[in-house]
Amino acid sequence: MPRRPIGALLLALAALLTLLLAPLPASADDSADPPAAPREATVPLENVTATTTQVAFGLRRPTALVAPDDGTGRLFITEKPGRVRVYHPDTGLAADPLIDLTGVVDESGNERGLLGIALAPDFAESQDVYLAYTALPDGAVTLARYGLDGGTLDVLLSQPHAENTNHNGGQLAFGPDGYLYWSIGDGGGSGDPFDTGQRLDTLLGKILRIDVTAACGDLPYCVPADNPYAGVEGAREEIWVHGARNPWRFSFDPADGSLWIADVGQGRWEEFDHLAAGQGGANLGWSCYEGPEVFDATQCDPSADYVEPVSYYSPYTGGCAVIGGGVYRGQTYADLVGGTYIATDYCSSTVWAIRETAGGQYETAEIGEMPTQVTAFGTTPEGEFYVVNDLPGGLHRVAFERSEPVCRVAYSATTWGTGLTADLTITNTGTEPVSGWTLQYTLAQGQTLVSDWNTTATQGANVVTATNAAHNATIAPGESVTIGYLAEHTGDTAPPTRFSLDGHPCGTGA
């Protein structure tokens, strides 16, 4: 075998070394910039105010809205009688419905009708829309797939719900895992009459999780193998979360996949629950618990692991039904509310903002008002918020702005055994006098007002409403008044929260 000349060999080795040391061609993934980390708010909640601007009129009892991520800029809005309407920022609300299911939807009763909508993750190609509604003739809560290309309606799952017209749930959303989640109420009536919240043999009072991309056996969908009750005898395998009363609206945080649930209460508490991504099998507690309190001890199981709400409020604030929204992940207002969960109430229209702190706790604030009777939030592909309101039926764009509280409350207390005395110093930080004022604040769970001074105070649930005395009826700009109270407690001596003066949120601290 002839030998290669040494010079040529060295040249070949040099060429090979050059090739080995050269950088590899960048793939499409390698050359792309990594996704930016979600921006978190840098402004305290007490310095944030939510506002809305109405952009469409003439909707008939809208119940839900979604935005297709197909570059069209459209919003799809469901109406209670059974129609899906289309809104575009440039052309407004289209006159003709995108979908008309009025022939199959039962809209009898205040809470029945077309209730929820979700778009397939591949909607731009498949044109598949998923709808939740109460169906004729008996109000069964129903999940169906509607194909926009062919106008076909395929029922996937139905749960009888004939006894009462309320508590139908209705939220639909695809999770980060690609599965479809659907909420159903406890069957209606008052006090969970069928004890469905804690039962696993019914879909009532649950959030379900199913795979709608395939069919399994006789079912037009599949149950994911990692559902918590898959293969459990006597349990409905579709169940993901149980112990719910009427989870009208839930949502996923697009940043971490966690699940936020707003569960409408019986009459004492409206609650917010926050579950980590993949936390299947969670028990929200109904009807053993309503919010933080035992509601029906006969439904309590000493061995059960109940999820504690991360926040709750009493209807004594003027509310009646919590309307869950979502975690803001847009860019326009990221410095104000990035990473903040936003919700409202159907009756009070209060905007609730909840933030998880670095220590795993949650802070809650009231940051403004929505239009009357908001029924649902929707999010654009860019993460911006819209809401729809029931009556008179409108679509509103949500914005946030920085503001300064018009009041500030400083707190000091002396505690002992089962009692405490507290002083509240209210400072008018605005530019106008405050006359004939009312201060509202929320006591910690288990605290009960015994008496007060320098005000006339009443307590409903954990909300105290204190009106001025004759001698301190006016607080001039920059001036302060001090009031106080005596309270009993059951162990939690935490200071009050959610101060508001004549409906305006107050800051805290000196």
Secondary structure layout:
Elements: H1 6-21, H2 28-31, E1 48-56, E2 62-66, E3 75-79, E4 83-88, E5 92-93, E6 99-100, E7 114-119, H3 123-126, E8 128-135, E9 140-147, E10 152-159, E11 172-174, E12 180-184, E13 206-210, E14 239-242, E15 249-252, E16 259-263, E17 270-275, E18 282-283, E19 289-290, E20 293-294, E21 311-313, E22 322-327, H4 334-337, E23 341-345, E24 350-356, E25 362-369, E26 374-379, E27 385-389, E28 394-402, E29 407-416, E30 419-428, E31 434-435, E32 438-442, E33 448-453, E34 455-460, E35 463-468, E36 474-475, E37 480-488, E38 497-501, E39 504-505, E40 507-508
Parallel strand pairs: 14-18, 29-40
Antiparallel strand pairs: 1-28, 2-3, 3-4, 4-5, 4-6, 7-8, 8-9, 9-10, 11-12, 12-13, 13-14, 15-16, 16-17, 17-21, 19-20, 22-23, 23-24, 24-25, 26-27, 27-28, 29-30, 30-37, 31-36, 32-35, 32-38, 33-37, 34-35, 38-39
Structure description:
This protein has 510 residues and is mostly beta strands. The protein has four helices and 40 strands. The strands form ten sheets. Strands 2, 3, 4, 5 and 6 form a five-stranded antiparallel sheet that branches. Strands 11-12-13-14-18 form a five-stranded mixed sheet, with no helix packed on it. It is globular. The termini are far apart.
Can I get a quick summary?
This protein has four helices and 40 strands. It is mainly beta.
Q: Number of DSSP strands?
A: 40
Strand content: 35-45%
Query: Largest beta sheet, briefly?
Result: 5 strands, antiparallel
Mean pLDDT: 93
Radius of gyration: 27 Å
Question: Which outline best applies?
Answer: globular
